[in-house]
């Protein structure tokens, strides 16, 4: 009972110290009154001089002033930015306080983090009218409600221990929305896959994208496809509010093994890493979680065209070099047959029904085809039929390559 | 030569004719052709005769108990000039209300014929400029409407036979009024109209420049109209900025750079650096910082732009160093921009006490940014018994003109 009364009495007693927190969003420029000034006007120069005396500027013509202003209003803060704030503990009483210590915690939806602060030093003394201050920072890594909890403990001259807490709530929203889409360009000639990333600015004002890269996993080599740079474009990518910017990346498997056995099924491609700045240079950075795709199946057998001429005259025979990969886990016994009916302008000279032999899992067999074209134009090669005699299954390969006939 | 204005000092017409050059409008030509000079087309009238309160005088009295002395001037255009020279723009505005009312163009007179003259047009031009400076934008747009497109027949000297006979020719409207007219849409829901007006105005000015050159006019006359063209383009850039069309704004400044004096070029580049900071584009900030360094070596405020660049990157320690170097080169401790920015960078550099004392020790008349920043920092780090803000204000308040707004400067809170 007695201890309860003491606690209540302590709570009812007025605090000697006060705590203030200021969110240190970037300082903005003062925006002075502006007006055009005709040098020959009898009044304009005098008016400009009067206005300059107020603003500290030396011209009335420029809308962005030269003076930086301490933050006056609460700005939004976004995921990926750094939360910077100033804590000030002031002794607004006539008595000295000792063992002043300030602890700052940030509580999010998922957890509570203790922020680094030299004001944690428990031997600090505060004379009347004096204050302690510190700027602290924290990288925002979650969205949702955040609560900054500042706890102050100190001792009065009577050696009484005092304690109080202050809470500052603020929401954190995502600044950008990222959508990705994979395009499989794999065909018989290459193994590339393309990633399209769409970045939408969700902030009420514009941001500037400084860097958007795809950190690809080791298994892929990544190249960004960019539009040609214009010579008069000096700046970074400017993204107004609600606007979308698209990026395109080409990923090539980092292997000479064209069976791509290790690239099958669900594979991780990498992460998108985005850096931006908003007005006055406020920095932000976000990474997506690992992006994955399901590789399209090749089935048991993959045919690649190793060599084919790009152009050939009409009626001149040409050679198509092919390679077959056994992508399955069992040996295959392969027979090649040719169906010439699918492409009347291309005539196969090679024999159909050629036995290519047994091919072990992950192994290859090569063969060549001879053909000639009977009409000019861009022609496709179709009609290759590979039969596995063990399981009596036939793979059909059509439009495996193109050739220009002149 | 008969006077065309009641001003006390009257320069010879030949010396000032070039200031009033303006192409004749179709409506003027029709009036001249028909020989009809009686119609009054331009019928302005003030829309509010409220006298502006001297807020500074009230604040000084509240805070220091002192009574501020305001000057006694004649009720004429010379009086206006005196008030403006002393910075008392509220009193000057009130005087325009009195003068125009005296000329029959007071409250309720808009749309009713009255006697326009060179002098009444000059007072209207002065009033509009004061309204810009005092941010009385709604009233400005309302009162400007009576002047329409600034080309009514009765705004030309040629429309007044007694003046035309003596050789006076051109627009009686001050060119400054055209600048304000082109800028005014910036304060309406249709700011892009300002860009359109600026383009049209620039085109007319270019034609005048070409004509002056063709007529082998004195270099000084050509130069004045080139400066007028510059100010039209600066107005266009401001209109784009208001609409947050930053890249359009930058394009206009870039177009101006090769045309202006070296001194103005530096100011434009410094402004472009600040626009780049507002956009948040580091590449642009670097580009303009380099241009300023090349253009500005050895001049005052040389380190100011380096300080701004460091602050852009959040490198406040470096910003403070640059600003301290700027202080040495640009008016020492009395440069309000350098003093203010050094203090703010100290605030961000975790040095609140230094920031406060730097601002409070500013030795000459405070500016609005300094007063506002003192107040903002005081909300964070001043005890309830601390009256250093009041003392700082009291120190120089009698040198502050009536243009200071104690509310905007946060002096009273």
TrEMBL record, chain A:
Entry's Gene Ontology cellular component terms: TRAPPIII protein complex
InterPro entries, per the entry: TRAPPC13 (IPR010378), TRAPPC13_C (IPR055428), TRAPPC13_M (IPR055429), TRAPPC13_N (IPR055427)
Residue ranges of every copy of the Trafficking protein particle complex subunit 13 C-terminal domain listed in the record: 309-405
Trafficking protein particle complex subunit 13 middle domain location: 176-296
Domain Trafficking protein particle complex subunit 13 N-terminal: 16-172
UniProt cross-references to PANTHER family, sorted A to Z: TRAFFICKING PROTEIN PARTICLE COMPLEX SUBUNIT 13
Family stated for the protein in its record: Belongs to the TRAPPC13 family.
Protein name: Trafficking protein particle complex subunit 13
Taxonomic source organism: Panagrellus redivivus (Microworm)
From TrEMBL, chain B:
Sequence intervals crossing the membrane: none
GO cellular component: a single term: TRAPP complex
Top-level taxon in the UniProt lineage: Eukaryota
InterPro entries documented for this protein: TPR-like_helical_dom_sf
Protein name as it appears in the record: Trafficking protein particle complex subunit 12
Organism per entry: Panagrellus redivivus
């Amino acid at each position: 009972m007695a201890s309860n009364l003491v606690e209540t009495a302590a709570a009812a007693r007025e605090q000697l110290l006060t705590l203030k927190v200021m969110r240190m969003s970037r300082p903005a420029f003062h925006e002075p009154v502006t007006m055009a000034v005709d040098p020959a006007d009898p009044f304009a120069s005098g008016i400009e001089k009067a206005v300059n005396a107020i603003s500290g500027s030396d011209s009335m013509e420029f809308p962005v002033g030269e003076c930086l202003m301490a933050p006056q209003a609460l700005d939004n803060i976004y995921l990926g930015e750094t939360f910077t704030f100033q804590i000030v503990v002031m002794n607004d009483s006539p008595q000295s306080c000792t063992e002043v210590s300030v602890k700052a915690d940030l509580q999010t939806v998922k957890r509570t983090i203790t922020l680094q602060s030299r004001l944690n030093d428990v031997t600090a003394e505060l004379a009347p009218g004096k204050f302690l201050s510190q700027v602290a920072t924290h990288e925002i890594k979650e969205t949702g409600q955040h609560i900054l909890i500042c706890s102050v403990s100190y001792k009065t001259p009577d050696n009484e221990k005092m304690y109080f807490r202050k809470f500052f709530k603020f929401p954190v929203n995502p600044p950008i929305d990222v959508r990705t889409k994979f395009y499989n360009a794999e065909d018989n000639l290459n193994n590339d896959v393309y990633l399209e990333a769409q970045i939408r600015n969700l902030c009420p004002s514009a941001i500037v994208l400084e860097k958007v890269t795809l950190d690809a996993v080791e298994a892929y080599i990544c190249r960004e496809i960019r539009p040609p740079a214009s010579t008069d474009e000096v700046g970074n990518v400017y993204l107004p509010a609600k606007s979308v910017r698209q990026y395109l990346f080409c990923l090539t498997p980092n292997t000479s093994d064209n069976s791509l056995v290790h690239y099958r099924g669900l594979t991780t491609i990498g992460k998108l890493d985005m850096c931006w700045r908003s007005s006055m240079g406020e920095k932000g950075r976000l990474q997506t979680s690992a992006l994955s795709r399901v590789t399209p199946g090749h089935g048991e057998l993959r045919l690649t065209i190793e060599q084919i001429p790009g152009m050939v005259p009409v009626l001149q025979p040409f050679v198509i070099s092919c390679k077959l990969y056994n992508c399955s886990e069992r040996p295959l016994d392969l027979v090649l047959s040719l169906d010439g009916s699918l492409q009347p302008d291309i005539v196969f000279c090679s024999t159909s029904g050629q036995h290519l032999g047994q091919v072990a899992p992950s192994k290859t067999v090569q063969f060549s085809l001879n053909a000639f074209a009977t009409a000019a134009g861009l022609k496709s090669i179709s009609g290759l039929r590979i039969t596995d005699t063990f399981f009596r299954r036939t793979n059909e390969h059509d439009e495996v390559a193109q050739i220009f006939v002149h | 030569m008969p006077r065309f204005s009641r001003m006390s000092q009257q320069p010879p017409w030949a010396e000032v004719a070039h200031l009033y050059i303006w192409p004749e409008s179709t409506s003027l030509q029709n009036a001249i052709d028909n020989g009809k000079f009686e119609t009054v087309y331009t019928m302005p009238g003030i829309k509010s005769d409220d006298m502006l309160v001297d807020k500074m005088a009230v604040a000084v009295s509240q805070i220091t108990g002192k009574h501020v002395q305001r000057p006694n001037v004649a009720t004429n255009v010379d009086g206006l000039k005196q008030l403006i020279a002393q910075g008392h723009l509220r009193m000057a505005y009130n005087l325009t209300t009195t003068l125009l009312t005296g000329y029959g163009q007071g409250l309720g007179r808009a749309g009713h014929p009255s006697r326009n003259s060179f002098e009444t047009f000059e007072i209207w031009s002065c009033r509009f400029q004061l309204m810009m400076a005092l941010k009385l934008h709604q009233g400005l747009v309302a009162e400007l409407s009576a002047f329409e497109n600034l080309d009514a027949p009765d705004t030309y000297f040629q429309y007044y036979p007694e003046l035309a006979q003596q050789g006076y020719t051109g627009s009686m409207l001050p060119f400054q009024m055209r600048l304000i007219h082109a800028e005014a849409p910036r304060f309406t829901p249709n700011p892009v109209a300002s860009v359109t007006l600026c383009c049209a105005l620039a085109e007319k000015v270019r034609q005048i420049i070409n004509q002056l050159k063709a007529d082998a006019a004195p270099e000084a006359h050509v130069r004045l109209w080139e400066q007028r063209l510059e100010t039209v383009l600066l107005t266009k850039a401001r209109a784009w900025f208001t609409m947050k069309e930053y890249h359009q704004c930058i394009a206009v400044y870039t177009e101006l750079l090769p045309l202006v004096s070296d001194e103005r070029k530096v100011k434009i580049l410094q402004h472009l650096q600040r626009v780049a900071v507002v956009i948040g584009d580091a590449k642009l900030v670097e580009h303009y910082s380099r241009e300023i360094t090349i253009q500005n070596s050895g001049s005052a405020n040389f380190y100011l732009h380096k300080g701004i660049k460091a602050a852009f990157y959040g490198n406040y320690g470096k910003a403070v160093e640059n600003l301290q170097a700027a202080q040495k080169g640009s008016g020492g401790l009395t440069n309000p921009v350098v003093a203010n920015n050094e203090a703010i960078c100290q605030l961000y550099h975790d040095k609140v006490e230094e920031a406060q004392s730097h601002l409070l020790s500013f030795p000459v008349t405070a500016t609005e940014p300094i007063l506002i920043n003192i107040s903002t920092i005081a909300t964070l780090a001043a005890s309830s018994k601390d009256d250093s803000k009041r003392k700082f204000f009291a120190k120089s308040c009698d040198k502050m003109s009536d243009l200071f707004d104690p509310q905007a400067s946060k002096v009273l809170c």
